[in-house]
Amino acid sequence: MPQKISNYRWLIAILLFFATTINYLDRQIIGLLKPLLENEFNWNETDFAHIVMAFTAAYAIGLLLIGRYIDKVGTKIGYAVAVVIWSIGGMLHALANSVGGFIVMRVILGIGEAGNYPAAMKAIAEWFPKKERALATGLMNAGTSIGVVVALLLAPFILSHYRWQEVFWITGSLGFIWLIFWLIFYALPARQKRITESELSLITNDIASDSKEQRNKNISWTALFSMKNTWAFIAGKLFIDPIYWFFLFWLPSYFSSTFSLDLKKPSLPLMIIYTATTLGSIFGGFLSSRLIKKGWPVLKARKTVLLAFALIQTSIILVQFVSSMWMAVALLSLATAVHQAWSTNIFTLSSDMFPKEYVSSVVGIGGMAGAIGGMCFPILVGYLLDLFKAQGNLSGGYNLLFTICGCIYLMTWCIIYLLTKKPQQQDQLS
Which of 58, 132, 202, 315 could anchor a disulfide with 110, C-beta 3.0 to 4.6 Å? Predict the structure, then answer.
């Protein structure tokens, strides 16, 4: 008999953290290799844009479909399949030698990577009581920023010894290493022999406390779209996910144009900003979990924390008034940290409002909405920056975008609040 562990659920959370880290590491590699690949294959910006759009479109479609697949086959198998697909897709980039070839590999990668969040949130719903889910989600979600930072460090190191092809082979293979640990250590709590009776009781008692309507398993996938709770989650992803992509892809250009930051060298300001997202992710989960442990109703705790973060996020509007680069770093570090804190609680809402049998489906639907927003918002970003640049005032374009970013969280919170005001009357699952 294996030795029993009293806090086995946190081992599961660590596995989810590493999976998310590898997920974001694999998707960032092509961006870091962009100058090298452009030189070798004579790409222009349109070629690279087509490659990026192929990934985003595949990711959006994958989120919609794979969530339902994971709900059908279970978390262990569903997550394993997703990791195998995205790891193969990541490694096969090394064989591509044309724009079309890279597009095919990005499609494979996008479909596989779409399974990460639906599977991870389903695992959290299976293993954690509601009072701990946000903290577990925060730990898992911290992998997004750690993956970006690891990519910034690992890709140059591999390139210093090998070719760009080896970067894809090595980073893509990391998913298979993770898969070994996943297959060994993951099982549903009731089937896991390494778990103690007290921990199993903590988990199962929380699930048993769900209402009869929440435990009903006969709802169809399409019926999820008729529920206000589903649309609350969709709103939280559709309007807010694009902000993170803006932070991820345009902040380097902002610092370059506004503060003459040399992007050819390791950038301490950007490292600080992206590292701050890890702290925000974990703190956001801790805060709402703390309120629930103190006796707050689950949804009230989540929505209160979301409101607090939405109010704090308005501080990003002040970036346009600072002249010091380090003041801008401080404000943008706060903004990115708050975004991840918000994201953690939005993800946890899916497991609060729906039983674990539907969590992957709901996360997939919301994730698809976020990906669509991620495809549309850059069009607005590009239009505004080109417009202001033509007027000789590029910083004005960034200032307007920061103002939009500062206000949109409050708008989204209002939508979520109205849609979840009376969830039991509106969203019965029977």
Answer: 58
CA nearest neighbour of 141 among 347, 367, 360: 347
User: Which residues fall within 8 angstroms of residue 303, CB to CB, at 6 or more apart?
Assistant: 413, 416, 417, 420
Residue ranges of domains in the chain, CATH in brackets: 9-184+226-423 (1.20.1250.20)
Do 384 and 400 contact (CB within 8 A), yes or no? yes
Distance of CA 249 to the CA centre of its chain: 15
Name the token pair of 343: 């994201």
Given a contact cutoff of 8 angstroms between Cβ atoms, the answer to whether 269 and 253 are in contact is: no
pLDDT of residue 208: 56
HSE on the CB side for 42, CA within 13 Å?
0
pLDDT band at 213 (very low <50, low <70, confident <90, very high): very low
* CA–CA–CA angle 405, 374, 258 (5° rounding): 50
Sequence-ordered list of residues with C-beta below 8 angstroms from that of 137, at least 6 positions apart, any chain: 121, 124, 285, 344, 345, 347, 348
Task: Please report, rounded to a whole number, the percentage of residues in the chain having pLDDT higher than 70.
Answer: 91
The CA R_g of the chain, rounded to the nearest whole Å, is: 21
- Give residue 239's Cα distance to chain centre: 14
pLDDT at 263: 54
Q: Are 199 and 8 within 8 A, CB to CB? A: yes
| Rounded-to-integer distance, Cα 80 and Cα 87, Å | 11
Angle between helices 116-127 and 130-141 (to 10 degrees): 150
What does the pLDDT average to over 31-45?
77
Place of tokens 């704090």: 312
Position 264 scores a pLDDT of: 57
Please name the residue that has the structure tokens 């600080």: 272
- The answer to whether 102 and 110 have CB atoms below 8 angstroms apart is no
